[in-house]
Amino acid sequence: MELFASLPDYPALVLSPLTDTFQAKHILLRDRVKIGRQSDSESTATPRNGYFDSEVISKQHAEVWAEDGKIWIKDLGKSITGTYINGRRLALAGVISEAFELHTSDILELGNHTNNEDNCDLRHRQVAARVTCLVTAEEASSYAHVEEVQRLNQELSAAHKENEEHKANVEHLNYMSELHKNDVARLERENAALRAEFDGLKSSTPCVEPKGAALPQLAVDPKATSALRRWRKALLCC
User: Fold this and answer.
1) Which residue has the higher pLDDT, 36 or 197?
2) How many CB atoms lie under 10 A from the CB of residue 194?
3) Three-state DSSP state, 197
4) How would you classify the pairing of strands 51-52 and 62-67?
5) pLDDT computed for residue 101 by the predictor
6) What is the residue-wise DSSP string for 82-95?
7) Cβ neighbours of residue 34 under 8 Å, at least 6 residues apart?
8) Rounded CA separation 62/83 (Å)
9) Is the pLDDT score of 115 beyond 70?
C-alpha cells in the first residue's frame, strides 16, 4: 500500500485550530461554502464543513470559495464581532465586505473572546485558525506528505510516552519488590531470634513435683511465656 495513495480533495481550505474551539477542518470548495455557527442538526459542525460550535460567531458569518486558482473569503455582515485576516477586520459590523484572498499561513479569526458578566473570567473563546490553501494537485500532494509526517510523529511520540510510562511502572515494581524482600528478611531474623530466646528459656525452666501432687507440673517462668507469645505473633505476621 502506497503511503500517499489517496490525496486530499482540492480545491480546499484547511483550517488548523489555534484555540481549543474546534477540530481541524478540511473544507472542499467546489462550491461556495458558508462559515457560521451550528444551529440545528443540518448545520452540525464536522471536520468537512464550515460550521463551528461557537457562540462568538453568527449563523451566517462568512463565505469562502475557490476561483481562478485562488481562495477567497468575505464577511457577510451578519456578525457584530466580525472576521479578521492577520488581525485586520474585513468590514464593520452590519456591512458585507469585499472579497479577500486567503494565503497559506494566514491567521483567520472569527468573532472575539467574550467574558462573563463580571468581565473577569473568559466565557467564550474566539475561533482562530492557521490557513492552508489547496488549489492545485501539487499543493494537495505536498499537504498530504506533511500531514502523514505529522501523523507518524504523533504516533512515535505516543509510543515513546507509553514506553516511558512502562519503564516507570517497572522501576516502581522493582522498588516494591526490594522492600518486600527486606521485610521478609527482617521478619525471618526476628523469628529466628525469638526461636532462640524461647528455646533457651524452655531448656532452663526446671520441672518440679510438689509433695502430694498426683501428676508432675511444669513450673513456667513468666519470661518464657512472654517469649512464646512473641514468637507465635511473629509466626502469624510471616
Assistant:
1) 36
2) 19
3) helix
4) unpaired
5) 97
6) -EEETTEESS-TT-
7) 50, 60, 61, 62, 63
8) 8
9) no
Q: Give CA–CA dist 79/172, Å, rounded.
A: 56
- Distance between CA 57 and CA 39 in Å, rounded? 11
Nearest-10 crossing angle of helices 222-237, 137-204 = 160
Does the pLDDT of residue 51 top 90, yes or no? yes
For cell 486530499, the residue is 8
Q: Residue 181 burial by CB count (10 A; 0-12/13-18/19+): exposed, middle or buried? A: exposed
Q: Which three cell numbers stand for residue 2?
A: 502506497
Give the mean model confidence (pLDDT) for residues 189-212: 74
Residue type, 205: T
Other C-beta atoms closer than 10 Å to the C-beta of 212 total: 5
The four Cα atoms 19, 23, 26, 30 give a dihedral, to 10 degrees, of -90
Average pLDDT value for the chain? 83
Scan for cell 477540530, then name that residue: 23
Cα angle, residue 49 at apex, residues 45 and 51 outer, rounded to 5°: 45
pLDDT number for residue 5: 45
**What is the tens place of the pLDDT at every residue in 168-187?**
999 999 999 999 999 999 99
C-alpha 30/C-alpha 92 separation (Å) is 28
| pLDDT bucket at 36, cuts 50 / 70 / 90 | very high
